[in-house]
Amino acid sequence: MSKIIVLGAGMVGSAMAIDLSELHDVTITDLNEVRLAYVKQKCNSLQILQLDVCNFLQLKNAIQNFDLVICAVPGFLGFETLKQIILAGKNVVDISFFSENAFDLNELAIHQNVTAIVDCGVAPGMGNIILGYYNEKLKLTDFECLVGGLPKVKKWPFCYKAPFSPIDVIEEYTRPARYVENGNIITREPLTDCEFVEFDIVGTLESFNSDGLRSIIYTMPHINNRKEKTLRYPGHVEYVRVLKESGFFSKDKMMVNGIAISPLDFTSKILFNEWKLGENEEEYTVMRITLKGNNEKGEKVEIIYNLFDEYCAKTQTSSMARTTGYTATAVANLCLEGLFVNKGIFPPELVGKHENCFNYIMNYLNERGVFYTKN
């Protein structure tokens, strides 16, 4: 039995801690004591610890006696938290999805003899793992990932809920979107190139540009076309673009009745209740991975993986927590079992390239009812 510490007791962090507690001694941390008490109530075998990850000395002391760290802090805290974990010499699986380039920490991780697997969720995450696996089998020319997490109940006007902070969603809607076309990196405004896409069970969804390729931009230069797009219910993009174009996402402070406030802070407060996914609110995750290329015989091949996953009433776990969290806990377990021991920064495609790791992760997810169906 290994000792694991999970940083962040949000919906995904708590799901990971509960899953890992079946085999390991797990401590979950958060700044919010109320949240910790709630998670402890759900799973009494967990140890809880109030922790401010911004207090680096406190963070270092908290993680020093653990075999593995799971980092599930908000994105704006992610890069610096990961850096401090590496400086402490601890192996880590990270799902904080920060905007900075994780490879900037590669030399540090190697020097500290640390295995750090980043972006280890659903997308980025499983899309990368599938890509990494087939990149070893085929000469790939195209990669596309369409992905979204959506509530079952379409509440007007946004028809959207998220199991994480609205500010992280807004960051996705404002960060320039990069994709690769004919070998060239293209940068576009997010929320553009909207297309309607049909999915079994779900019906019609709307896809749009978002900056979800992340490490795949750098690790797969030989694949001429690489694209990731986010999925929402039709109409969502228009409402969000109205807010964006009207200045509601601006970080520049303005004076309101003698008080300096940024429109982004105000908007995030308003949208917190509008977008916050309830603990037992039904939602689903849908994803389609499309790979095109040639096999050893030079024949053209197209491989498609589809995911449709729903809120689990039995465990009271959201689909986004299941699909994101269980990917990370699968990788955590394979690291603890010695199946991946390389040192440095590793995005999921560099883990999935190993057939034994790919099969381990797929089997782990299947055991938990998360099924990626190959067409």
Quick overview:
The protein is α/β, with parallel strands linked by helices and 375 residues long.
SSE map:
Elements: E1 3-7, H1 11-20, E2 25-30, H2 33-42, E3 47-50, H3 56-63, E4 68-71, H4 75-87, E5 92-94, H5 106-111, E6 115-117, H6 126-135, E7 139-151, H7 166-174, E8 177-181, E9 184-188, E10 195-199, E11 203-209, H8 216-219, E12 225-232, H9 236-245, E13 254-256, E14 259-261, H10 263-275, E15 283-294, E16 300-310, H11 319-336, E17 344-346, H12 349-352, H13 355-367, E18 372-374
Parallel strand pairs: 1-2, 1-4, 2-3, 4-5, 5-6, 6-17, 7-12
Antiparallel strand pairs: 7-15, 8-9, 10-11, 11-12, 13-14, 15-16, 16-18
How does this structure look, described?
This protein has 375 residues and is of the alpha/beta class. The chain folds into 2 domains: 175 residues, Rossmann fold (3-Layer(aba) Sandwich); 185 residues, Dihydrodipicolinate Reductase, domain 2 (2-Layer Sandwich), CATH 3.30.360.10. Helix content is 34%, strand content 27%. It is built from 13 helices and 18 strands. The strands form 4 sheets. A 7-stranded parallel β-sheet has the order 3-2-1-4-5-6-17, with helices on both faces. Strand 13 and strand 14 form a beta hairpin. Helix 11 packs across helix 13. The two termini are 38 Å apart. 46% of the residues are buried. The model has no long low-confidence stretch (mean pLDDT 95).
